[in-house]
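[09:14] KT: can someone run the structure on this one? pasting the chain below
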Amino acid sequence: MKPSPKLHIFTVEDNAMYTLALDLTLKDRFNYQITDFDSAEKCLENIYLNPDIIILDYMLKGMNGQEALIKIKQALPNCYVIIMSVQKDIDVAVDLIQLGAYTYIKKSNSALDKLVETIDKIRDEMDNK
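[09:31] RB: done, structure tokens below
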């Protein structure tokens, strides 16, 4: 079996404490390069870095997660975008999936565990392509 390539993951989160929690969770994983942004605009300015996965908060200052998702998928149609938010409206989650988000994870006590499981699943999909 060939070794998995190093995954480049962008996090887009305007809460510094949650960014730290994401970083600590993800940096414990093997072979991840993490780049953090506190706004969708900064993420999009750096989209040329071609991340494999973007973890995108929905409720951001400035451009929200839905607007950012549309622009991300236009620039990188094959990028896996995971939406994470405290937003509870199921219709919003469904809309985001229809716009191309890989999944929607509600921020909760188990959200980081779900995120790790989701990234492991994405890595398996990438390895099987």
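[09:33] KT: thanks! The beta strands are 7-12, 32-37, 53-57, 80-85, 103-106.
[09:34] RB: yep, looked fine to me
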